[in-house]
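Q: Joint fold for the lines below.
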Amino acid sequence: MTVLILTSEQDVTADMAVVELNAGGIPVLRLDPAELPGGVGVSGEFAHGAFHGHLSVGGRVVSMGGLRSIWVRRPGTPASRASAASAWLTEEATQTLYGMLRCTDARWMNHPDAARQARHKPWQLWLARACGLPVPATLITTFPRVAREFTERYPDLVVKPVSGTHPGDNGLAVPTTRVRPGEDYRDVAHGPTLLQRRIRKTADIRLTCVGERMFAARAASGQDTDATDGIVDVRFSAGAGPWRPVAVPRRIADAVHGYLRRAGLAYGAFDFAEDTDGIWWFLECNQSGQFGFVEIETGQPIARAVAQWLAGEPLGPPLDPGEEGEWTLGGAEHG
Amino acid sequence: MTVLILTSEQDVTADMAVVELNAGGIPVLRLDPAELPGGVGVSGEFAHGAFHGHLSVGGRVVSMGGLRSIWVRRPGTPASRASAASAWLTEEATQTLYGMLRCTDARWMNHPDAARQARHKPWQLWLARACGLPVPATLITTFPRVAREFTERYPDLVVKPVSGTHPGDNGLAVPTTRVRPGEDYRDVAHGPTLLQRRIRKTADIRLTCVGERMFAARAASGQDTDATDGIVDVRFSAGAGPWRPVAVPRRIADAVHGYLRRAGLAYGAFDFAEDTDGIWWFLECNQSGQFGFVEIETGQPIARAVAQWLAGEPLGPPLDPGEEGEWTLGGAEHG
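A: Joint structure:
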């Protein structure tokens, strides 16, 4: 039974998990949908009441019936590297590849439908609250008047994009920024605006979840968070400390498990802001969030946990036992 | 409790259902996401453990908590008519609108995730067979050799696009076409190709499903289906007869109910080919298929059934009792 990994060629994070799978003797097929058709071939026959599908890459052919799991890491757009690339060919290749993979019994990390749903920020905030996570008061609106009223109730606010992406679509993120007093909200009418009560944070928390396992890391905030140019985003903050492993409070662990279960996610990277009372405030859950930087700084064996989940069976002793160490209440059962 | 209809301004099929809802006294809010932001406004607040969302169009404001159902008919792309339209603004507006609607208790026709899954043709063929519908032997492949072997086993084939769309993206459909003997399959390597055993059909069947209700219509095939230029698609055939109501065989009704249940669809338009033995062969299920032309030719009250489902309660006597008539085994319970 093979693990299928859909990702681009340059993906060192995927490499980390592949090393573990190889060491455990688990067959892996790695391919980039961008290469279909071309370097990647696909075939499926529906006849005599049965479906038989095959994938081919680099001369190797694997039966879809023999897939144990599918890791949707960072796949390219289907057919984007084809000799006759077009929007139409992309649609044909997308439906062919993902349509057939949906017919298999393989486990998904993450299923495309769950992944798509999980990207909606308003739904994330709603689900987090429903699962018992603390969520800062948030407004998303196209009404300038409503934005002004919200500011009166919550004077200390940050603003960020709803989708978390950058207008220039250049791979950069937009930093979360403090709202200046007396802000003019007229432009809110031209695009949905997300305003959120600012958490006076002492640290950023990244909680990486792999199946039932959780790896929490904490980066203490810099001294002068309040004194800078208004950017409060850890990704842009020079003062943030290094990532260090941290224990997960039981209530948070239970709430996060509930979130993942209701969202149908096998993987999720949660961002929290820790306040001066030690409360973890939910900011977002990225269903395809990176974990390489956390693993490198903390030594937490996240890639190994991913490999374990994909394998669906014990992988034998860790490659480097000295770096094992899982910071979760329920971890001992799964480690 | 309001029915929300997401569709473009010009949508006479939606008009048909709106007339029924209006006659039944059910409040309707109709809007095109293309007008967000601009003609359409949206606002949602997440605070004190609750979510409160509002939609606004034409000066009318409706609470999202008061939505009974959402009909995703033919919505425009969010923000596509905005003054500062961009791919980024579309992403922001999409996540805002659909992200908030996902937080409501409203019933969907159809839920976006179910709709997306249902579009995958390979998955349709697989599910149809799993539910017990007859499916013609089908191959989807990028391997010329596999295509040639399939032709040897099934010499009488048709070819059609996997996605059902046209390469020119001009709103036209690609007709289903017979494969010529001795076809050169080398180009299969450049794009996934769908080959299907041709059904020697006596009629086309359109089965329109609305919740638990079914409306079947039959159009007898023209005399010279085999003698023409190879196009066997009813949409392009001059010889096809008019659409007439027809009874649904019990086995088909049971299988189709199973299909809709497993697909999570509240609406689906099934296309079958009826062969000389009277067998209905599954060709596809379009989760957003048109029904206006069937209703007009057959008099089947499909728009009324849609309105009834959206209302979720009896709508009173039909507008034109003379045209009632539902051709389904289970219809009497729901009519």
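Q: Anything notable?
A: The CA atoms of residues 146 and 152 of chain A lie 10 Å apart. The longest helix of chain A spans residues 87-101.
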